[in-house]
Amino acid sequence: MLKIASxxxxxxxxxxxxxxxxxxxxxxxxxxxxxxxxxCTRCRSRKTLDQLKRxxxxxxxxxxxxxxxxxxxxxxxxxxxxxxxxxxxxxSPADLARFVxxxxxxxxxxxxxxxxxxxxxxxxxxxVTTTHRxxxxxxxxxxxxxPPILVGKIVAVRYRPDTLPQCNIGxxxxxxxxxxxGRIREYIEKQRATST
Length: 196
Known about the structure:
Order of helices and strands: EEEEEHHEEEEHEEEH
Strand order of the largest sheet: 7-8-9-12-11-10
Helix content: 10-25%
Low-confidence stretches: none
Radius of gyration: 18 Å
Oligomer: single chain
Number of helices: 4
Shape: globular
Structural class: alpha+beta
Largest sheet: 6 strands, antiparallel, barrel
């Protein structure tokens, strides 16, 4: 879990360093739906600036914060797509599927994907974020170089009660070969070049 490691006062600004209780990950700042989110590269724990400020004392909370962390490295390595998708969620690769969700892959990168599912139930949330995080994604109308099934670990589940049953599920790929990762990057760069 992300925590505040230290404060350093610089005039009216306070420089804040973050750490994660998992002990090994770097903390990155990423842009997510026009909001900056800080996350750990190892355990994928995420927090917004507002969440971090709520954990601080009122002395620090009122100042202008500058978060010391790594910049968003995903900015040039992902692309927005619309591939119909089916996601099977299991506790482990050997288990039967506990949930099967349907929707679309909306964001693709060499390291993962964002799947927007249309049939998520709030009662699934606890299992999908704790014990059932193994995901197998089948994409329709995908680029030919992608394997028929993408395997990964669920790293984020986001929804609002008023938008259910739609839910955003972030998946970090597991076991994707360096060749396929390279081809995804090439594909993204080509798509960026043709859209400009």
